[in-house]
Amino acid sequence: MTSTAPSDLPYLDAFAAASHDAWRAAVDKVLKGADFEKRLVGRSADGIRIEPLYPAASEPARALRAEAGRWHVAARLDHPLAEAARALALADLEGGADTLSISFAGAPAAHGYGLAADDVATLDAALHGVMLDLVQLRLDPAPQGRINALLLAALVEKRGHAPGGLSISFGLDPIGVFASRGSLSAPWPELGRRLAATIRTLKERGYAGPFVEADSRPYHEAGASEGQELGAVMATAVAYLRALEAQGMSLAEARDAIGFTLVADTDAFLTVAKLRAARLIWNRIQQACGLTPEPARIHAETAWRALTRRDPHVNLLRGTVAAFAAGIGGADSIAVQPFTAALGLADAFARRVARNTQLILLEESNLWRVADPAAGAGGFEALTQALCEKGWHAFQAIEREPGGEPGGIVAALAEGRLQQTLAAQRAARTKAIATRREPITGTSEFPNLREEAVAVLDVAPVGPDLRHSQGSLAERNQSELIRCFVGGAGRAEALAAPAAALRAPALPSLRLAAPFEALRDKADAQPRRPAVFLATLGPIADFTARAGFARNLFEAGGLAAPSGDGFARDGTTDLDALVGAFRASGAKLACLCGSDAAYAEEGAAAAEALVRAGATVWLAGRPGESEAALNKAGVASFIFAGCDAIETLTQAQAIANT
Prior knowledge:
By secondary structure, the chain is an alpha/beta fold. It has 2 domains: 73-418 and 451-457 and 464-494, Alpha-Beta Barrel (TIM Barrel); 514-656, Cobalamin-binding domain (Rossmann fold, 3-Layer(aba) Sandwich). The protein contains 24 helices and 16 strands. It has helices spanning 20-31, 36-40, 82-94, 120-126, 145-159, 174-181, 188-204, 217-221, 226-246, 251-256, 268-288, 314-329, 348-364, 378-399, 408-414, 417-434, 478-486, 491-494, 514-524, 540-556, 575-585, 596-612, 627-633, 645-656; strands at 42-43, 49-50, 72-77, 99-102, 136-139, 167-169, 212-215, 258-264, 298-302, 333-335, 532-536, 568-569, 572-573, 589-593, 616-620, 635-639. The strands form 4 sheets. Strands 6-5-4-3-10-9-8-7 form an 8-stranded parallel sheet. It has a 4-stranded parallel sheet with strand order 11-14-15-16, with helices on both faces. A two-stranded antiparallel ribbon has the order 1-2. Helix 4 (120-126) packs across helix 5 (145-159) and helix 9 (226-246) runs parallel beside helix 11 (268-288). The longest helix has 22 residues, at 378-399. It is globular. The termini are far apart. 47% of the residues are buried.
């Protein structure tokens, strides 16, 4: 913290240099005896300490992109119908996007939608008017990813483009699909052979790749911490290195075939550190392989699990924070989830807002003008190093899976061990969400019962393609398949024969807000919104804090909890007025709200009066020494900060709906 070097700003030398001890003394004075660790030190899901203050980094670890400058703005082509998909895609490109992520039907990232294109003609119609040589194209990992890649290559050939002049990421990720769906279409060695054959075919035609994608989204959506996400995605990349090397590729050639997709979440500091750590870990893996490190190619997408269906406009803030962090963290391209994505397929307005989020960060905030802007910042460097260690530990744990075929992450998934690890992490986060230690604005905190509906497209979800019969062209090599696709052949004709394949429990794709949303949906389905009567004690200044807490909690479960000016009279509570208001409300659940002094003086009497009037009585706050007396008077439960809100609201709905 202290420095003896001359200041670049000489007038600052007139002030005493700051020191950590002086800062800590000032903090302790403000805390007035409160626990420093509990008040000011946080912990990430991996247990990493989040300090309130960090010293300057002495030797920053540089995690640079291959090319400095603007990141690419990506939009998803995921409407099932070709013409509608085309219109949305052209609007995105005309509005500032320069990358299209094509999600075929069945792609996990499409979340029930996706382009239904089984032949080149349909794909051509979806991309009609899109100049393939002026944009970047990405294929989202999906079942039958090999066929999707060959269909796109056939479209390029049909249009007469030189593949070497195009920028296409082919998104082949059988491991990610295995994690999402719980099955592989063929034994792992056979999939490695097909993967290598597809890459060779595409490279022979002039494509530069990347061809394979190590995608962290399945693990993130299943509840992974930042370290677990890094471990899984690096283990996936190493599995592809091994598989391609086994098929005769050099390690350098295999390395160059791989790209990465990482999730940008709403914790900006951890997201920046995670992307930087990913680059450093990948460099270390390359060094261990005897390679001269090349920068990882990283595509970032804002977190699906962070999206909410309730008060969805708050998703605009989540997307902005995540996109900001991904840009600062050094993503090569970024996709922002439309703010209505959790409700259905986004319309043109939601897509425009999503891309404009990035354009503002690029054009008005100028985030792209500094390469690795987090370098040297003490907090970011410390978190980056900590995540490198956590990610490396998680990677090694996966790599310690039994040797032989398949080993590594494929074995970790097939044996269910990785699923168990993520389930434990998911349970811990679920508890933190339920107790609101991790609040969700607009859902678990500050809910809005009068929110306005938002528009989504009226499109039915598309079911996954479950066909498994062998097509007539299945035995053709990849180049012949491309020619057949150009000639009009369809997907079904190229399907390979069914084979005995690995099975595993599929990873769930979850959103953190879902438990609260289920309660809201249940409340909304009632003929009359369930309500809680807030039985306020004493003057308004005494009950406002706890009444606000109670209303916030109950409305998170869809229960109305109106509060007025109270029932104070001559310094006490008019119990007759309070009971009369309860009866008039029609509620069955009453919650006492007041100060500790009011609870001690009037709580028991108020509870008894409300019980006689037919109420189930709860109390806002911890009971302390008055618990026995309050219970005896009829208080059935207590609500307080840190209680299990999901369980509490479930019980409240059951009482209110009787």
